[in-house]
Every structure is written in structure tokens, then in C-alpha cells.
Design brief:
Rossmann fold, 3 domains, six-stranded mixed sheet, 39% helix
């Protein structure tokens, strides 16, 4: 307790500012001012985060004075600034970075929405995003739609509510309405699409060579002698599925191979559905001699099932898949794939978004295609 130096009163003492490195006090009983050195033991050290209000109260000055001193403003007496800094250090004051960011209208945080974090492809994309974002000084908030349109919409709303500076998104296979994206674009939020994109909005996009990759895989089967090539396609409405199916059709047309509807089966990339497709093809009067899976995991599922049925790969049925993973090279026979780099896709998408955020007024949306590579393995190599 502090007593008045004149009348000895304790209960009438109030803090009234700070002068020449000392705490200034006022006694309401005898109306006298006096100063003391502030004991360190009286510094308020609590578990909660110290604010400039706490510092101001301990010194008997206004929060605005503390703020100006800590922000290096020139309209503060040097001795006052020195004492404020000393007390702030003793109280273990740490600036509220989020509050500072919001005052500047930015959080240095970007949001990411992906369909399925368990898929190795999207894990690779996230690694690329994280690297570029961190190097650029941005934090990353990640949401998973779990292939649900409604969850995707809620993800976007949650990230916007968290005041992200921009959004990276790959749509769910259920998403056919893009109002939740159009709304945020109208509000000026920088958005970049990757992999599963939307052509209804003008955003920067990073995509794979979906048409080209499917064309190359189908052409490879044809050059290996396949004439009846089945395709395990993806959801009918998904843009990547449409592009990959069109690549398959274009390759057949190039070599004058008739398109057979019974050899086209649309799935949701689910194992059970791809095996239903395989079962249907094997029960046809004329079985396929080649299979293209637009998702490599479905190709692996079918290889396992064909081996169970004692069907020789590739001599009876050759099989190829779009996309790559370590297991594709380890399975017996190893899977021929069209390889792409998810890490590079994530890095490019993140760089585009950072550029969009920094140069919001001059940024021009563009389409970036990722180069892919045909990797020929045992599952298709007949010659």
C-alpha cells in the first residue's frame, strides 16, 4: 500500500500519471501530488495476455500514450517512452498481431479448401502451398469439404469469417453451384482455383493436363495393340472427368476406333463402383483388352481384382491410370500412369494467390497448366 507523503492517507491515493521516470500519485484527502519509483513486485503479471490498457493503468497514463510510445511515434517524451518500454518489458507485453493486422485490413492468412486431406495428391498440394505461403509471410488455414457441397460452402464461410486475405479452393465432386464463390468475388476476396476448378467465374486457375494426359494414356494402349478400351470415368458433372473422358474419345477417333458406350462407366472414384464397372465389362460378350482409369487408385483396385480372377495383365487386359503415387510403382504389375506434380501445383497456386493479394487492383487472372509425363510400367507394356 502507498501512503500520502503529507497526511499519511492510504485509501485516498490514486495514480495520476508519470513524470521523469517515476510514478505520479495524487492524494484526494489533502490534494497533494507526489512521485515514487514503481516497485517491480507491483507489476501485474497474470496468465492472460497483457494489453496496453494494463500498462497504462500501471503508470497512470492513457492507453493512447502507451500505444504511441510502443509504435515509435515522435510526439512522446523520450524519458516517457523509455519508462513505458521498461514497464512493458517487465509485464511481458506482446503485441496482438491479429488486432494489428485487422487495423491494417489484413491478417496475413490464406484459406485453403480441399475435397479430401487423406488423398496423397491433396497432401502433396498442401505441402507446396505451405512452403510458398510461409516464405511469403502468410499463415495457412486448411478446411476439408469431404466431397460435400454443403460442407464446402460452410468451409468458405468460416474462412471468410476468420478474415483470410485470400482463398485457394479445389471443389468437391458434389459442387455444381458456385454461388458461394461468386459472392466472395463480388466482395473483392482474392480467389485461386486449383485442380477441380470452376469455369463460371473469372479467377486464376492451376490445372493438370487432363485432356492431354488421358489422350496420351489411351494412345499408349492403342499402340500396345488394344482395340477395345474401357474407361473408368469420374462423376459426369466434374470438369476434370469431362476433360479426361474427352481425351479418351479423341484418341479413339485419331485411330478410327469406334466409341462403345458399354465401355464407358462413370464412378465417384469409389473402390466399390470401379469394381462394379470391371464386373460389368468382364461379363460382356466381348471383353475389353485395355482399361483407362481416370483416377489411379481405381486402376490399382482393378489390378488386384483381375489378379484374383486369374486374368493376365497386360496380355489379356492392359491397364493404365491417371495420377501417380508410390504404391503405383510397387504393385505387381506396376501401374502405367500419367504423372503430375501435386507439390508444384500447390506452390504455383499459392504464388498466384499471394500475387493476387498484393496486387489486387492490377492482378490479371490466368490459366496455368501443369506439365505431365507418361510413365510406362508393366501393367500395359506388351511390346
Amino acid at each position: 500500500m502507498i501512503a500520502c507523503t503529507k497526511c499519511g492517507s492510504v485509501e485516498n491515493i490514486v495514480k495520476s500519471g508519470f513524470i521523469r521516470g517515476k510514478q505520479r500519485l495524487f492524494c484526494k484527502a489533502c490534494e497533494v501530488h507526489f512521485t515514487i519509483n514503481l516497485p517491480q513486485k507491483e507489476i501485474n503479471k497474470t496468465a492472460r495476455q497483457i494489453t496496453i490498457v494494463d500498462i497504462a493503468k500501471s503508470l497512470g497514463i492513457s492507453p493512447s500514450t502507451v500505444s504511441r510510445a510502443l509504435n515509435g511515434r515522435s510526439d512522446i517524451n523520450p524519458m516517457t517512452r523509455q519508462e513505458i518500454i521498461r514497464v512493458a518489458t517487465e509485464m511481458d507485453y506482446r503485441p496482438n498481431l491479429l488486432a494489428q493486422s485487422l487495423n491494417r485490413g489484413e491478417t496475413h492468412t490464406i484459406g485453403v479448401v480441399i475435397p479430401n486431406i487423406e488423398r496423397p495428391f491433396f497432401a502433396g498440394v498442401l505441402a507446396g502451398i505451405q512452403k510458398v505461403a510461409t516464405e511469403a509471410g502468410y499463415r495457412v488455414m486448411i478446411c476439408q469439404s469431404n466431397e460435400s457441397h454443403s460442407t464446402e460452402t460452410l468451409n468458405v464461410q468460416a474462412l471468410v469469417a476468420s478474415r483470410v486475405d485470400g482463398l485457394l479452393i479445389s471443389h468437391s465432386k458434389e459442387t455444381t453451384s458456385f454461388d458461394h464463390i461468386k459472392l466472395q468475388l463480388r466482395r473483392g476476396l482474392p480467389i485461386v482455383h486449383f485442380d477441380r476448378v470452376c469455369n463460371e467465374v473469372e479467377t486464376a486457375k492451376v490445372v493438370q493436363e487432363d485432356f492431354e494426359g488421358s489422350f496420351v494414356l489411351t494412345e499408349h494402349l492403342i499402340l500396345q495393340g488394344c482395340k477395345r478400351i474401357a474407361v473408368c470415368a469420374g462423376p459426369r458433372e466434374l470438369l476434370i472427368s469431362i476433360s479426361r473422358l474427352n481425351g479418351y474419345k479423341a484418341a479413339l477417333a485419331k485411330y478410327d476406333i469406334p466409341l462403345r458406350e458399354e465401355l464407358i462407366y462413370h464412378t465417384n472414384f469409389i473402390k466399390g463402383e470401379s469394381l462394379l464397372a470391371l464386373d460389368g465389362w468382364l461379363n460382356l460378350p466381348q471383353k475389353p483388352d485395355g482399361i483407362l482409369a481416370v483416377h489411379y487408385a481405381n486402376a490399382i483396385d482393378m489390378i488386384v481384382e483381375l489378379k484374383k480372377r486369374k486374368i493376365k495383365i497386360p496380355s489379356e487386359i492392359a491397364i493404365v491410370g491417371f495420377g501417380d503415387e508410390l504404391i503405383a510403382s510397387l504393385i505387381e504389375p506396376s501401374l502405367t500412369v500419367f504423372h503430375h506434380s501435386p507439390f508444384q501445383m500447390g506452390a504455383i497456386a499459392a504464388k498466384m494467390l499471394v500475387d493476387n493479394i498484393i496486387h489486387k487492383d492490377t492482378f490479371q487472372p490466368m490459366l496455368q497448366k501443369m506439365n505431365g509425363e507418361l510413365i510406362i510400367r508393366q501393367s500395359s507394356l506388351r511390346k
